[in-house]
Amino acid sequence: MYSGKINRECFVCDGLNQDSEFYAADLWEKYDTRYFWSPAVEMIRNQQRPSTKEQLKKFRLLDASESLWQNHMPQDRLNSVRPVTALKELIRNLHSNEEELNSLVPGRGEYYPTPLYWQHPTYTDGFYSWTTDYVKDYRKLTSGNSEKQLRIEMNHIDSLISNQGIFIGHGYYVRGRDVIFDQDGILVIHPSFDRLLAYLEEKNIKGDLYNTTVKDLLDYWTLTENISFTYCPDNAIEVYNENNHSISGLSMVVKADSVYIDDVAPLIRQNNDDLIFWFDMPAKASKKIRFGKSKQTN
Domain residues of the chain, as ranges? Predict the structure, then answer.
């Protein structure tokens, strides 16, 4: 896709061009295919990332030093700690070489966040693009000290949950021999990767993590685009669902002790100072939200 030599029928090439023999949008419409991965973010970031190794080859020591710090130490962190602490963290980051498992703060928060999905105002019609930040690599998990790497991956998941993050994964799990391999004609999942999947499922069952697909996620996000609010004089908020479809589990976060939807307490969850609540919203309907003090926390 990057060079334009293959996959000409894809979304970022000729798929939307009606004058091209590779036009495919009519098929996407027919089969209700609306969401398309965009390689743009990964491509741009890979190109713009300076190479310390290349600078060293050219004996540009100052440039090499700048690129080393830029690639492995966020600027805000560098400005907030002492030089000795910064050096220790740089060395640790060099050895860990781990990516941030949160699409809301890519590159450990060093990159500017980008929209996780978008729609061109005229050209793409009813189609949407979505993006990823990098290819998630699990080769460390399935080779060497897998127990240590498994703990690292689990810590990434815990951090994602505590930061209320979102991670859109990009990986090639069935290609090669890393996480899925052929054993006497049977496809087998590597035990360490299987344990990581079990950990994801455990968090999902507890309600800490929502494991979903891009389609279900974007179905929800695009519906929330048509939710509007009216702030009433009595300190209540009127919520409107302007969609022709209902929304199951419309979720909101407030700083309050209690919340009521049309005088009925919804499902809630406390997360530090935040009160997360969710409720079903019928199509073309409105509900009134009120906040107040609660005698007990559910």
Answer: 226-292
